[in-house]
């Protein structure tokens, strides 16, 4: 029983990391129709910046949090403005390709600016172990779950109550026409990129605290992408659920069957679910009628 | 070319609200879709633009609303002024912010948004209270939409979609409303009410209307001034009353045969290469 | 200056070339291909060989993604299968290489049906994920069935001997690859102008309308899968021979992204685009190296430990800049150039 | 032969210099450069200075092959000082054999590289299998009757380790209660470690490379279990200990290279400080030592051929020279039918305090 | 031989809660032009979608030349002689006009993948023969000047003609035209009217027409079928339907003894 509980706990913890990054994929997709292949890399860079801040201010968690969120926003805005915006009216595949180019740049930049080594990132008591009724987890793992649920609540309220949420969807649906309504699709895109960067930054930082900080952190993006698909590309909250499902499945398969099947199991689940629901669990169907 | 003047009773010597001068538009660096077109739309008037398929009408509207570049089109010569400002190369949102709204060709609804959300988008720049009032008005104009309010708009019938497209533009209460074939695919009854509404908006709100329409008889009924476009040029223009008496307009746009004032039947159309007098 | 040729018969419309000039260009191209080994040495030749193998794979992907609009991130799976089918049949079982190549096409083609059938309802990125998933599963299976595949240790592959002729030198292997390349180009061009190619394009542009025109969507999507993975499988076998060693590590996931990148950079859906894109992306590291060496040796030593990271940076930067300036890819560039050429000196 | 002018001798190598594997490649590269700088400072070989061209393959096999062709065919180097990782080296064998260029393989020595011996490929170090074999034997003796858990990577590296353990099991009594393979690139080891805990493992073979071992040990710490943990040499770098934190204290390791903290290690650092920049010295690790040592062996052979600098001569000298002792590992020597230095290994333990490993029993 | 070509019996289609088509019974005979009219959202296009196999019927039956279509898969309808155009344009945007029309010939071609890849013998002969046919259609519809243009760059009205061409290329027995003249001016509408009549007379193809242009409907149809809320209001000769009170109330909006009062007004302006 405790074994299962511990498997579930660690599954949820890592799933929450996937979920946060998956949400950032979905936010950008939902509001601009673009898939940002550099999302994992952006999370990684933000984690490294947080690490740099923490080593220079002696780990004051508030300064680290403020600093890295601030950086995440500025970073995202800069990327959006300099690289993505000029491509806005170009074919979507070209835009996606640009994000692939970005991911190459970011990966190189990490090693150029910092180094290729794994690091132990100890911010505040994120590393501390907490005992939850016999199940031991790290504080950062709890934090990541809390962050995920906060993000879910925030996104739900935003898309439910804000007119800006409708505008975001309109831009994704047809940005030229959205402009005809007076929507500044540039602003929408900026907001989406900033929000996505903050979410994936939070995921990156907390993952780095609970596990490790290394230049292969970007691979989280490769995990989160399937999670987004599982939840539905344009389903922001659904993606979070997708992340949790994948995290838990992997751990259950690893715990009861074999580790070698972990990765494969996640993908098998996705194939099965997509066969029944071709637009993911919560995704919107492509609307077509003649 | 004289161009239309402000409607009688409103004698102001202001420049027209929308003015296009000697515009040339080229697609893909190769296709010249509009050449040397000048046209003006005075404040408070209704100006109609007629012309056959591929004449360049929609292209002109795209230029006016700054959406040309999305299709690799460029305004290579000439200028477009709206409310005194040169908008030839301005961004769409800015043009819309200044008070011009377009009902684009092909409806262009946000397919996965509901009818209601589509209308909300129309009033994007308005306050929430305003939006509610305008939505009320649109729903009255198109009762059909009230029934379909929370349906995903992509599944609507063609005509219903057209209603949403027109309604969405009305939601913006623009200073100048540009309509690309508003009656396309609509039932006669609905066309009546759209034209009534356009007329009312113009009267009550002094809205200016720039109308591209294939339903020439309808357009001429409501328009003050008419331009006719062929092959990328303006070939004929004049006040609506005068245009109605033009023999070519009667034959090619209104379907009367030989000037005797009777509509000829589609069954009797003969095929021979006719020559329009204005294409001499 | 030419401004297009007037066509009088229908045959002229379906011919691949429409002018003597074009035929002359093709002739020159062929001569260049034949002459390459006499001019390039060891390294240059292997670079060209790699470009050709990549181009074959890209043309294969183009059938599925460019024509039919089905985005795949699983092409590495079919490459792996092709490479293993060839390696196992020729090296472990001692079958003749020609048969090995046939298997290298057929095995992935069959596998693609298995991937394709459950994916028929999927579109866009949703399909991309299931193909990605199949790539992971294939890798897992290859490692699992180590009795057949030798697991993670891999299989050595010798240069083939076909009808007693040994393609053992680099130049000979290059000609073999070039032969496959030309066959692939011809097959793709022919497919494109046939009813099959048109059906695929129709599905991409509007699948509902395609169905009303009598196109069986399921069948044709599977055709696309099969044709694409057949070609990709062949390129996998060639790649295995090129590396002389087949393991799953030799086909990293990155290859799938790179294949997609080639199509985008080349211009989606165009055969010439796929080829140009392959040349561009395979050659790009050379270019960055060149730019780097051009920056001078002092700069190089200054950045001794990070020189290679800077190359990576440059690589990404060039891709972004290229797409910024030429969003329609190399084919777009080519068309612009040609239009300017045919229309010059008139502007429009 | 090629690569030799009146003033210069060109050497080449391929290794991962970018991305995470760059940790290994860059360090190795520094070792090679150190060896070259040392001879160059003493006037080079027969008055010729040595120069190195390093190509980056990012650990991708096709790029290794491409780079080798470039080094051999375009740059025309005289000899090769590395063929990148084990899989890459295996794939390179046909080209190397065909060209006849002398090549040193100091990273990832796998048996197929030297069994049967190829004329011109010289493998320096010890195989993973033998290293693991020794480590397992030692642990079996030290912890008799303990329950073992084994976590291995699903590639040739993991397979070699597995074979080493198998060999040890034939000779000693090892009670394995849990064994699993994970897919390369895995980051989260929670379920594996839970099973380790569940099975009551007392000796854990953490068969990852770098990140994986860090993850496993941290996970054990989280679960509150303290098995004896054994890691393998690729991860025997100070950064790993630092990244794991205090929980890394007492981890076993095995290596054929002396720890930095040892006398020989310190002497090596001293040498490095003489020829490398401060920035570079900071990146020195065990791969620097293997790179240095194997290159020294090559250089000694070349020196022996100073007047007749040919491939044949160099190969012959490599074969006949007495073993070269660099201090940081067993003397390196080959023989007529031997292309493998077969260096002896030492079992060591980590000390978190000094972020280093020390041979057991010291 | 029966004159009945297309028969609909009690056809129903529901989407979730909405019944878009509710029990429609309709026949099209050989050589007939039948129009379907009705307010927006009455279910006309949905009816076409059912007849052409885009959507499955919820209940009721459709048959062509006596063959029931219930078990026929969507892509085989065209083989039975059903061709159509789409209200909202459903062309293959990246293809040229010729390409688009050639797709209409698809089902008549038999080349296999292998033959196609080799482009030899039958593949080549077949291709030439069908291109010939396409050229005839292009000639017939007078669109030579745009034959090599990429369809996505054509104007709305031009695209509608290409659609008509593509539908004709399928050699239909009955041709379904969904608002084919929407977006066309008088002159172009006249052209299309002539095409429709010619198609019927020369090619012997029956035509089922959805149209909101009452002049056209009244002038060229043999019979008119009026729908509202998916149900039939009335069916009959054009004049009868036009003066049916249900039709006037739901659709036309005014009594139309005279077909076009607004034109009369316009004409009055001349005097
Ligand atoms: N995106 C484009 N690229 C290239 N050419 C285009 C493009 N859009 C339109 N054209 C060409 O420009 C010309 C004018 O097209 P436009 O759409 O403005 O015509 P229109 O007057 O609106 O016709 P319709 O009444 O049929 O809508 C046409 O010949 C068309 O082929
Ligand atoms: N796929 C669908 N899902 C949900 N509702 C649909 C769907 N297709 C059609 N409808 C609904 O069915 C009704 C009939 O639509 P249809 O398109 O048949 O009307 P129509 O008679 O062609 O109208 P119009 O003259 O405006 O084209 C509409 O109210 C529409 O909203
Ligand atoms: Mg138009
Ligand atoms: Mg309809």
TrEMBL record, chain A:
GO terms for cellular component: plasma membrane. Keywords: Amino-acid transport, Cell membrane, Membrane, Transmembrane, Transmembrane helix, Transport. Coiled coil: none annotated. Pfam families: BPD_transp_2. It comes from Pseudooceanicola pacificus. The keyword Metal-binding does not apply. It comes from the Bacteria. One of its GO terms (molecular function) is transmembrane transporter activity. It is found in: Cell membrane. It is a multi-pass membrane protein. This is Branched-chain amino acid ABC transporter permease. GO terms for biological process: amino acid transport.
TrEMBL record, chain B:
This is ATP-binding cassette domain-containing protein. The keyword tRNA processing does not apply. Transmembrane segments: none annotated. It comes from the Bacteria. Keywords: Amino-acid transport, ATP-binding, Nucleotide-binding, Transport. It comes from Pseudooceanicola pacificus. GO terms for molecular function: ATP binding; ATP hydrolysis activity; branched-chain amino acid transmembrane transporter activity. SUPFAM superfamilies: P-loop containing nucleoside triphosphate hydrolases. GO terms for biological process: L-amino acid transport. The keyword ATP-binding applies. Belongs to the ABC transporter superfamily. Residues 18-256 form the ABC transporter domain.
Automatic annotation (TrEMBL), chain C:
One of its GO terms (cellular component) is plasma membrane. The chain crosses the membrane at residues 21-40, 46-64, 71-89, 95-117, 124-143, 173-191, 222-245, 314-334. CDD domains: TM_PBP1_LivM_like. It holds the Pfam family BPD_transp_2. GO terms for molecular function: branched-chain amino acid transmembrane transporter activity. The keyword Endoplasmic reticulum does not apply. It is a multi-pass membrane protein. Keywords: Cell membrane, Membrane, Transmembrane, Transmembrane helix. It is found in: Cell membrane. PANTHER family: HIGH-AFFINITY BRANCHED-CHAIN AMINO ACID TRANSPORT PROTEIN BRAE (PTHR30482:SF10), HIGH-AFFINITY BRANCHED-CHAIN AMINO ACID TRANSPORT SYSTEM PERMEASE (PTHR30482). This is Branched-chain amino acid ABC transporter permease. It comes from Pseudooceanicola pacificus.
Automatic annotation (TrEMBL), chain E:
SMART domains: AAA. Residues 6-254 form the ABC transporter domain. SUPFAM superfamilies: P-loop containing nucleoside triphosphate hydrolases. Gene3D superfamilies: P-loop containing nucleotide triphosphate hydrolases (3.40.50.300). Keywords: ATP-binding, Nucleotide-binding, Transport. One of its GO terms (cellular component) is plasma membrane. CDD domains: ABC_Mj1267_LivG_branched. PROSITE patterns: ABC_TRANSPORTER_1 (PS00211), ABC_TRANSPORTER_2 (PS50893). This is ATP-binding cassette domain-containing protein.
């Amino acid at each position: 029983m405790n074994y299962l509980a511990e498997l579930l706990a660690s599954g949820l913890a890592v799933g929450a990391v996937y979920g946060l990054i998956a949400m950032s994929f979905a936010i950008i997709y939902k509001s601009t129709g673009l898939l940002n292949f550099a999302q994992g890399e952006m999370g990684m860079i933000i984690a490294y910046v947080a690490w740099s801040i923490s080593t220079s201010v002696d780990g004051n968690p508030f300064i680290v949090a403020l600093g890295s969120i601030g950086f995440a926003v500025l970073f995202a805005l800069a990327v959006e403005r300099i690289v993505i915006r000029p491509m806005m009216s170009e074919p979507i595949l070209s835009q996606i390709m640009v994000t692939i180019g970005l991911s190459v740049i970011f990966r190189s930049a990490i090693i150029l600016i910092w180094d290729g080594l794994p690091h132990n990132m100890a911010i505040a008591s994120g590393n501390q172990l907490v005992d939850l009724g016999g199940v031991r987890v790290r504080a950062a793992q709890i934090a990541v779950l809390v962050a995920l649920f906060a993000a879910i609540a925030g996104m739900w309220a935003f898309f439910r109550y804000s007119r800006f949420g409708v505008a975001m969807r309109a831009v994704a649906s047809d940005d030229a026409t959205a402009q005809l309504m007076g929507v500044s699709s540039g602003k929408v895109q900026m907001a989406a990129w900033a929000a996505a960067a903050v979410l994936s930054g939070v995921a990156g930082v907390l993952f780095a605290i609970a596990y490790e900080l290394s230049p292969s952190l970007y691979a989280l993006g490769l995990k989160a992408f399937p999670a987004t698909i599982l939840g539905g590309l344009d389903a922001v909250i659904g993606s979070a659920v997708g992340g949790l499902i994948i995290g838990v499945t992997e751990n259950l398969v690893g715990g009861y069957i074999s580790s070698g099947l972990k990765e494969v199991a996640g993908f098998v689940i996705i194939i099965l679910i997509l066969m029944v629901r071709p637009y993911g669990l919560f995704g919107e169907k492509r609307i077509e009628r003649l | 070319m004289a161009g239309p003047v402000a409607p009688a009773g409103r004698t102001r010597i202001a420049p027209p609200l929308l003015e296009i001068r000697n515009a040339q538009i080229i697609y893909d660096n190769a296709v010249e879709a509009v050449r040397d077109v000048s046209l003006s739309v005075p404040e408070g008037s209704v100006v109609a633009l007629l012309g056959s398929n591929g004449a360049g009408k929609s292209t002109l509207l795209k230029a006016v609303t700054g959406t040309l570049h999305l299709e690799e089109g460029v305004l290579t010569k000439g200028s477009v002024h709206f409310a005194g400002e040169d908008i030839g190369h301005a961004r769409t949102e800015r043009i819309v912010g200044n008070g011009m709204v377009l009902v684009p060709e092909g409806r262009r609804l946000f397919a996965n948004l509901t009818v209601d959300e589509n209308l909300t988008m129309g009033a994007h720049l308005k306050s929430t209270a305003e939006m509610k009032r305008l939505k009320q008005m649109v729903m009255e104009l198109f009762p059909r939409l009230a029934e379909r309010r929370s349906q995903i708009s992509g599944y609507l019938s063609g005509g219903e979609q057209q209603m949403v497209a027109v309604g969405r533009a009305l939601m913006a209460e623009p200073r100048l409303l540009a309509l690309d074939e508003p009656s396309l695919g609509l039932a006669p009854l609905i066309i009546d009410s759209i034209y009534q509404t356009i007329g009312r908006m113009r009267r009550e709100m002094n809205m200016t209307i720039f109308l591209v329409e294939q339903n020439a008889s309808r357009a001429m009924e409501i328009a003050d001034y008419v331009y006719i476009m062929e092959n990328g040029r303006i070939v004929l223009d004049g006040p609506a009353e005068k245009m109605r008496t033009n023999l070519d307009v009667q034959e090619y746009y209104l379907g009367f045969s030989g000037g005797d004032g009777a509509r000829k039947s589609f069954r009797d159309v003969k095929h021979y290469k006719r020559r329009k007098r204005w294409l001499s | 200056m030419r401004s297009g040729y007037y066509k009088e018969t229908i045959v002229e419309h379906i011919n691949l070339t429409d002018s003597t000039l074009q035929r002359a260009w093709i002739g020159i191209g062929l001569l260049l291909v034949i002459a390459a080994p006499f001019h390039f040495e060891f390294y240059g030749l292997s670079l060209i060989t790699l470009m050709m193998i990549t181009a074959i794979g890209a043309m294969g992907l183009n059938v599925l993604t460019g024509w039919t609009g089905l985005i795949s991130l699983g092409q590495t799976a079919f490459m792996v299968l092709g490479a293993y089918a060839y390696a196992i049949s020729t090296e472990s079982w001692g079958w003749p290489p020609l048969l090995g190549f046939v298997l290298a096409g057929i095995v992935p083609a069959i596998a693609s049906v298995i991937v394709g059938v459950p994916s028929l309802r999927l579109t866009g990125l949703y399909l991309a994920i299931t193909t990605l998933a199949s790539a992971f599963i294939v890798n897992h299976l290859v490692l699992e069935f180590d009795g057949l595949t030798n697991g993670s240790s891999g299989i050595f592959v010798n240069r083939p001997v076909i009808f007693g002729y040994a393609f053992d030198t680099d130049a000979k292997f290059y000609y073999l690859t070039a032969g496959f390349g030309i066959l692939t180009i011809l097959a793709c061009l022919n497919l494109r102008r046939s009813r099959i190619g048109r059906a695929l394009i129709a599905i991409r542009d509007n699948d509902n309308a395609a169905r009303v025109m009598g196109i069986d969507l399921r069948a044709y999507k599977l055709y696309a899968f099969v044709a694409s993975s057949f070609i990709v499988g062949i390129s996998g076998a060639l790649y295995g021979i090129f590396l002389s060693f087949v393991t799953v590590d030799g086909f990293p996931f990155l290859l799938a992204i790179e294949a997609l990148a080639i199509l985008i950079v080349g211009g989606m859906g165009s055969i010439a685009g796929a080829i140009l894109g392959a040349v561009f992306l395979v050659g790009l590291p050379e270019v960055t190296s060149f730019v780097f060496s051009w920056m001078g040796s002092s700069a190089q030593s200054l950045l001794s430990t990070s020189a290679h990271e800077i190359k990576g940076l440059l690589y990404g930067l060039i891709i972004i800049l290229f797409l910024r300036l030429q969003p329609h890819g190399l084919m777009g560039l080519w068309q612009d150039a040609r239009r300017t050429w045919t229309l010059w000196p008139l502007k429009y | 032969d090629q690569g030799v002018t009146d003033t210069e001798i060109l050497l080449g190598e391929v290794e991962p210099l970018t991305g995470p594997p760059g940790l290994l490649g860059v360090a190795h590269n520094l070792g090679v450069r150190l060896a070259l700088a040392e001879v160059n400072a003493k006037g080079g070989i027969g008055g010729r200075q040595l120069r190195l061209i390093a190509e980056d393959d990012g650990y991708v096999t096709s790029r290794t092959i491409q780079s080798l062709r470039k080094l051999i065919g375009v740059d025309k180097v005289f000899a090769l000082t590395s063929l990148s990782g084990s899989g890459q080296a295996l794939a390179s064998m046909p080209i190397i054999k065909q060209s006849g260029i002398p090549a040193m393989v100091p990273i990832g020595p796998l048996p197929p590289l030297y069994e049967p011996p190829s004329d011109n490929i010289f493998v320096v170090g010890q195989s993973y299998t033998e290293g693991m074999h020794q480590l397992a034997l030692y642990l079996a003796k030290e912890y008799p009757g303990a329950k073992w858990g084994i976590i291995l990577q699903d590639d040739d590296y993991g397979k070699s380790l597995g074979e080493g353990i198998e060999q040890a099991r034939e000779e000693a009594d090892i009670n394995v209660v849990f064994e699993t393979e994970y897919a390369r690139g895995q980051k989260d080891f929670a379920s594996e470690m839970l099973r380790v805990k569940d099975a009551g493992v007392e000796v854990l073979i953490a068969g990852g490379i770098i990140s994986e071992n860090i993850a496993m040990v941290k996970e054990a710490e989280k679960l509150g279990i303290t098995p004896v943990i054994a890691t393998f040499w690729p991860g025997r770098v100070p950064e790993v200990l630092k990244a794991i934190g205090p929980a890394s204290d007492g981890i076993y390791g095995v290596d054929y290279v002396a720890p930095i903290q040892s006398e020989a290690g310190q002497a090596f650092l001293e040498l490095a400080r003489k020829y490398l920049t401060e920035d570079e010295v900071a990146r020195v690790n065990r791969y620097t030592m293997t790179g240095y040592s194997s290159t020294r062996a090559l250089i000694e052979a070349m020196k022996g051929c100073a007047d007749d600098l040919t491939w044949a001569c160099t190969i012959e000298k490599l074969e006949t020279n007495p073993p070269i002792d660099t201090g940081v590992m067993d003397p390196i020597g080959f023989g007529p039918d031997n292309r493998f230095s077969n260096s002896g290994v030492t079992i060591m333990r980590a000390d978190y305090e000094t972020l280093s490993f020390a041979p057991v029993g010291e | 031989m029966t004159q009945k070509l297309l028969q609909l019996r009690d056809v129903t289609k529901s989407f979730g809660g909405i019944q878009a088509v509710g029990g429609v019974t309709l026949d099209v005979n050989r050589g007939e032009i039948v129009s379907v009219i009705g307010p927006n959202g009455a279910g006309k296009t949905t009816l076409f979608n059912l007849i052409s196999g885009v959507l499955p019927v919820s209940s009721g039956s459709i048959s062509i030349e006596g063959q029931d279509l219930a078990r026929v898969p969507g892509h085989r309808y065209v083989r039975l002689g059903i061709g159509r155009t789409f209200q909202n344009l459903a062309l293959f945007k990246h293809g040229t006009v010729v390409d688009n029309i050639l797709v209409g010939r698809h089902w008549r071609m038999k080349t296999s993948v292998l033959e196609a890849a080799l482009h030899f013998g039958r593949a080549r002969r077949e291709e030439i023969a069908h291109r010939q046919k396409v050229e005839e259609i292009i000639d017939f519809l007078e669109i030579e000047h745009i034959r090599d243009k990429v369809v996505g760059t054509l104007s709305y009205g031009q695209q509608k003609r290409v659609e008509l061409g593509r539908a004709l290329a399928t050699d239909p027995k009955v041709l379904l035209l969904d608002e084919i003249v929407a977006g066309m001016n008088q002159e172009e509408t006249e052209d299309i009217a002539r095409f429709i009549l010619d198609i019927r007379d020369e090619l012997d193809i029956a035509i089922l027409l959805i149209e909101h242009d009452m002049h056209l409907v009244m002038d060229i149809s043999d019979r008119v079928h009026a729908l509202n809320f998916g149900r039939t209001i009335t069916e009959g000769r054009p004049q009868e339907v036009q003066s049916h009170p249900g039709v006037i109330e739901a659709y036309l909006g005014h009594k139309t003894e005279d077909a076009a009062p607004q034109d009369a007004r316009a004409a009055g302006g001349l005097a």
